[in-house]
């Protein structure tokens, strides 16, 4: 199509870049694994999550633990008392950082706990922090711990959040999918190794109404492969590569479909 340049003259429109996404909402989402950690940006920190978004991620996955004083802090490992405790981001701080741009997706993984009392306090603390957080981030609460996740889902029933059962590398992916469906969750988050052993599980999950996220996907061939399976999102340590490869894979699929 020709367009006017404002002076009345007609100029030819530039062809669309075939490797840019078309704007459709069915592309595979990219979530930074604990943000985008690096020097000066510890994993699960506000700086790491902010960097992931700057690099083109649709969102990030972070880990939370409940401290003895009832604070949810962002850390992959259990929190111990000491000077390092104060350097950790709290969940409210991280939620505030994930409000811009609109539509950021944040996966908050509640780490497993063996004490039922702590599990109940964790679920309540999550509900309290999320209800107090204003903004437009799309939130998913995940866990490897089915019992904890059930408590979290019940505590957050009145909040606009989703829940996702995480599968570990040793559990058959089909079993995780079935458990996620039976427990009423919205999503299932599967390890790449499990999907490699049983690729058909992605279609099975989708048939059951579950969104599928695969972790942790870094290599280009793996990124293209899971995109071809129809997953909804990937968690990755390399946001830039993942965004580039998945956008190219989407462009190829759109070209073939056309």
From TrEMBL:
InterPro entries: GP_PDE_dom, PLC-like_Pdiesterase_TIM-brl. Residues 28-246 form the GP-PDE domain. GO terms for molecular function: phosphoric diester hydrolase activity. One of its GO terms (biological process) is lipid metabolic process. Residues 1-26 are annotated as: Disordered. PROSITE patterns: GP_PDE (PS51704). This is Glycerophosphoryl diester phosphodiesterase/deoxyribonuclease-2. The lineage of its organism: Bacteria, Bacillati, Actinomycetota, Actinomycetes, Geodermatophilales.
């Amino acid at each position: 199509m020709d367009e006017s340049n404002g002076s009345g003259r007609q100029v030819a429109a530039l062809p669309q870049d075939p490797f840019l996404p078309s704007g459709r909402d069915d592309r595979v989402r990219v979530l930074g694994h604990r943000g985008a950690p690096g020097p000066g940006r510890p994993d699960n920190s506000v700086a790491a999550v902010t960097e992931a978004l700057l690099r083109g991620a649709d969102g990030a996955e972070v880990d939370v633990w409940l401290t003895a004083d009832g604070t949810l802090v962002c850390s992959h490992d259990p929190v111990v008392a000491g000077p390092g405790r104060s350097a950790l981001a709290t969940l409210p701080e991280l939620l505030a950082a994930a409000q811009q741009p609109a539509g950021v997706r944040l996966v908050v993984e509640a780490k497993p706990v063996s004490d039922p009392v702590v599990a109940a306090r964790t679920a309540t603390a999550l509900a309290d922090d999320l209800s107090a957080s204003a903004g437009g981030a799309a939130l998913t609460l995940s866990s490897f711990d089915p019992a904890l996740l059930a408590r979290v889902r019940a505590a957050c029933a009145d909040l606009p959040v989703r829940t996702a059962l995480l599968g570990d590398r040793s559990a058959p992916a089909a079993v995780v999918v079935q458990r996620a469906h039976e427990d009423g969750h919205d999503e299932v988050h599967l390890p790449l190794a499990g999907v490699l052993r049983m690729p058909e599980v992605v279609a099975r999950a989708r048939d059951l109404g579950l969104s599928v996220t695969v972790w942790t996907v870094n290599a280009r061939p793996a990124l293209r492969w899971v995109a071809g399976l129809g997953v909804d999102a990937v968690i990755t340590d390399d946001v830039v590569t993942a965004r580039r490869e998945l956008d190219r894979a989407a462009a190829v699929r759109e070209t073939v479909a056309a």
